[in-house]
Design a protein that fits this description.
- Keywords: Leucine-rich repeat, Repeat.
- This is Tubulin-specific chaperone E.
- It is a single chain.
- About 25% of the residues lie in helices and about 15% in strands.
- The chain has about 375 residues and is an alpha/beta fold.
- It has three domains: about 5-210, Leucine-rich repeat, LRR (right-handed beta-alpha superhelix) (Alpha-Beta Horseshoe), CATH 3.80.10.10; about 220-275, no CATH class; about 280-370, Roll (Ubiquitin-like (UB roll)).
- The strands form two sheets. Strands 1-2-3-4-5-6-7-8-9-10 form a ten-stranded mixed β-sheet, with helices on one face. A five-stranded mixed β-sheet has the order 12-11-15-13-14.
- Helix 5 (about 195-205) crosses helix 6 (about 215-235) and helix 6 crosses helix 8 (about 260-270).
- The chain starts with a strand and ends with a strand.
Length: about 375
């Protein structure tokens, strides 16, 4: 049983020549015809490709119009790879074409305009879409989009020209999207890599995999909490604390930039004013005075020290400092923090190697150490 054949780079000049080979292989499933410049096919060739499910036609110099002319030959194709062709414009496939297609790779085609991509939005089973290095700059998806790309779960957008966060936010409107690859774009170079990752996670609510790495529940929690703090001042300034009926143009502008902010508020609670203060001399100086408190597992207080710490101090450095002060086993050290007067139930675990600003530590807070 022949499932796969590779005839790439064989100087074949027509689909008829390919059909002479494939018609002898009635159970053929996978075919690689890349780098052969094949002339327009004859409809009579369709039986020669009836069982084909995976087709690689890279570097064929095909336009999308030429692909659609060939497509009736592949009635059962599931995965189609068209990397580095001449596809600039797209068109909706005819109703009887690509109905079984679940993976389409258009990497390194000069598409440029996301509106062209949207012409594929009615493909009923398309789950994976490759759009790396296609010149895309701005992505737009209508708010009522449940019927658009209904099955799309994964999209690759590496090495494009995407330069606005709004183009990331609209990915949240794709109803089934859970896997995004978004690297080497102007928008991903604005912040540090770890911050960029958190901003993408916060903006795309169903994301489970980002840049080939799983998004855990805990990572999402921290990403969304940091998003609340980061953009809280803009939210408040736009009227976030006002009744809905009293919000105006500033609120609508804010939602255009941060469409998920209200949903994140619903999930974790709106930020308090105390969390948004950035005007004190201490904060401006990038330092805070905190109490370092050593407690037993039973809650007995053993030591209480005051220290002035930089907000840029990361958790790993803080653990080293605390361990020097309290002389325990650093491998067993756990840190958390809370505001003065709050009980233990309000403590927030410090379990990621981020800086104090990320955790929202403020002047006078307690950092609790337990071994």
């Amino acid at each position: 049983m022949t499932l796969y054949i590779n005839i790439a780079e064989n100087l074949l000049s027509s689909w008829a020549a390919v059909a002479e080979i494939t018609q002898q292989l009635p159970k053929l499933r996978i075919l690689n015809i890349s780098e052969n410049r094949l002339a327009k096919p004859d409809a009579a060739l369709r039986p020669a490709f009836a069982s084909l499910q995976i087709l690689m036609a890279n570097r064929q110099r095909y336009t999308w119009e030429e692909v659609l002319q060939c497509a009736p030959m592949w009635p059962d194709v599931r995965r189609l790879t068209l990397v580095t062709n001449r596809i600039r414009s797209l068109a909706p496939p005819p109703p009887d074409v690509f109905q079984q297609l679940d993976s389409l790779d258009l990497d390194s085609n000069p598409i440029g305009d996301w509106a062209e991509v949207m012409k594929l939005a009615a493909l009923p089973k398309l789950r994976d879409l490759g759009l790396a290095n296609t010149g895309l700059r701005r992505l737009e998806v209508p708010e009522q989009s449940d019927a658009l790309f209904p099955a799309l779960q994964a999209i690759v957008l590496d090495s494009n020209q995407i330069d606005e966060w709004s183009s990331v936010s609209v990915l949240d409107r794709l109803p089934s999207l859970v896997d995004v690859t978004l690297r080497n774009n102007p928008v991903t170079a604005i912040e540090k890599p770890e911050t960029t990752r958190e901003l993408i996670i916060a903006r795309v609510s169903k994301l489970q995999v980002l840049n080939r790495t799983e998004v855990t529940r805990e990572e999402r929690r921290w990403a969304e909490l940091d998003y609340l703090r980061r953009f809280g001042p803009a939210w408040r300034e736009a009227g976030g604390r006002l009744p809905a009926a009293e919000r105006g143009d500033a609120w609508r502008t804010f939602l255009q930039t941060h469409p998920r902010y209200p949903a994140i508020c619903d999930a974790w609670g709106a930020p308090e004013d105390s969390e948004l203060k950035i005007t004190s001399d201490t904060i401006s100086a990038n330092m805070v005075s905190v109490r370092l408190v050593l407690l037993t597992r039973e809650g007995e207080q053993l030591r209480d020290l005051e220290r002035r710490l930089p907000l840029t101090m990361r958790l790993s450095k803080l653990k080293v400092l605390v361990n020097k002060l309290f002389r325990g086993n650093i491998k067993q050290l756990e840190l958390s923090y809370r505001s003065p007067g709050q009980d233990e139930s309000r403590e927030i675990a410090m379990d990621r190697d981020r800086d104090l600003r990320f955790f929202g530590v403020e002047e006078g807070d307690l950092i609790i150490a337990r071994y």
